[in-house]
Amino acid sequence: MPANSHAPLARQAMAYVLAGGRGSRLLELTDRRAKPAVYFGGKTRIIDFALSNALNSGIRRIAVATQYKAHSLIRHLQRGWTFLRAERNESFDILPASQRVSEDKWYVGTADAVYQNSDIVLDYGPEYVIVLAGDHIYKMDYELMLQQHVDARADVTIGCLEVPKADAIGFGVMGVDESQRIVSFVEKSKDPPTIPGSDDTCLASMGIYVFNTKFLFDLLDQDAADLHSSHDFGKDVIPYLVKNGKAVAHRFADSCVRSRNETRAYWRDVGTLDAYWEANIDLTGITPELDLFDRDWPIWTYAELTPPAKFVHDIDGRRGHAVSSLVSGGCIVSGASLRETLLFSNVRINSFASASECVILPDVNVGRSARLHKAVVDAGVRIPEGLVVGEDPELDAERFRRSETGVCLITQPMIDKLKD
């Protein structure tokens, strides 16, 4: 046991965030950035949720493993997350795939992404390691999961969501007994196991795992030596422990953090254009399912210095106004109208333009008289004067990336092609 057994378990833990995913289902949004670095909610990046959960839970040692298109992510982490101080027994390590084990070997799986940095983790001497995915939107107190792990004397404790059986085919699903011990684990099965007492609800893996540190790295040493392994937690390590060890399920509902305005446990994988658009637009509602105004569980991020948002002109037909919208600092709504729209920082919407049900990323300029509906506009895009998007499906599909539900993704290369 640790020397101070009365201290919160989170202070004896390290959070290890896996943030190397390509995020290819987000299409051109991840052409220049990894999925965890994609903007979300007006101010934050997706990875800020996992990192904020760790910090708010009391964890003060954090490591982030990066790989694909990592520059934007690393720059964000350096700007917003380097306030943890070694002299307070805190640490924040950014761990790119740097061929530490072999000069020709990048991270080949999620387990390998932890194994390759085993010496760094072990140097800090944490009692526990909590492995997190860096690409989901949720609020969770990891201290409660750590406590269950210790109380159950588990080899691994796995964070799980309750999902309808019809939706479970896209997940790794746990079969559990009455004590929450995992007795089976299947990936993306057409007939996944259901939870005891319910024939239409399954426990799906959240990609969150708690281990005792020494046990984890003994296990990863064994996995690294297995030539038949793909060195992945979901495909190799977890199935092995379900069969040969003690794996326990932790239900997200037991540790989900909710303000008084949040009625249900909120978790989203914003990995498709439609899901990304919907989760952002939901925030413009009167009482959204995700409460970003919760001061008891803040979402930390890089706080860019910007002037206040500005709304100007008060002339019929040229009135700067917004309804049911989120407008970030540095924005200027100049004689334009917004409805159910989310503006990130430093966006300018010029006179006679309109945007409805749009997610507009930082540093975008929308030209005069443009009309945008149900669009996601990538950072830095210059929307030409008079451009109309969201009114002619066939024309939209020719010029932009259009989803099945009619969401249009607009990037600068797409705009540049219009000029050719």
Automatic annotation (TrEMBL):
EC number: 2.7.7.27
Record site: Could play a key role in the communication between the regulatory and the substrate sites: 67, 106
GO biological process, one term: glycogen biosynthetic process
Residue ranges constituting the Glucose-1-phosphate adenylyltransferase/Bifunctional protein GlmU-like C-terminal hexapeptide domain according to the UniProt record: 307-410
Keyword ATP-binding included in the entry's annotation: yes
Binding-site residues, alpha-D-glucose 1-phosphate: 107, 172, 187-188, 205
Pfam families: Hexapep_GlmU, NTP_transferase
Domain Nucleotidyl transferase: residue ranges: 16-283
Pathway(s) served: Glycan biosynthesis; glycogen biosynthesis
GO MF annotation terms: ATP binding; glucose-1-phosphate adenylyltransferase activity
Reaction(s) catalysed (UniProt annotation): alpha-D-glucose 1-phosphate + ATP + H(+) = ADP-alpha-D-glucose + diphosphate
SUPFAM superfamilies, per database record: Nucleotide-diphospho-sugar transferases, Trimeric LpxA-like enzymes
Organism superkingdom: Bacteria
Keyword field: ATP-binding, Carbohydrate metabolism, Glycogen biosynthesis, Glycogen metabolism, Nucleotide-binding, Nucleotidyltransferase, Transferase
Similarity-based family: Belongs to the bacterial/plant glucose-1-phosphate adenylyltransferase family.
Role noted for this protein: Involved in the biosynthesis of ADP-glucose, a building block required for the elongation reactions to produce glycogen. Catalyzes the reaction between ATP and alpha-D-glucose 1-phosphate (G1P) to produce pyrophosphate and ADP-Glc.
NCBIfam families according to UniProt: glgC (TIGR02091), PRK00725.1 (NF001947), PRK00844.1 (NF002023)
Subunit structure: Homotetramer.
Listed name of the protein: Glucose-1-phosphate adenylyltransferase
Species whose genome carries this gene: Rhodoblastus sphagnicola
Gene: glgC
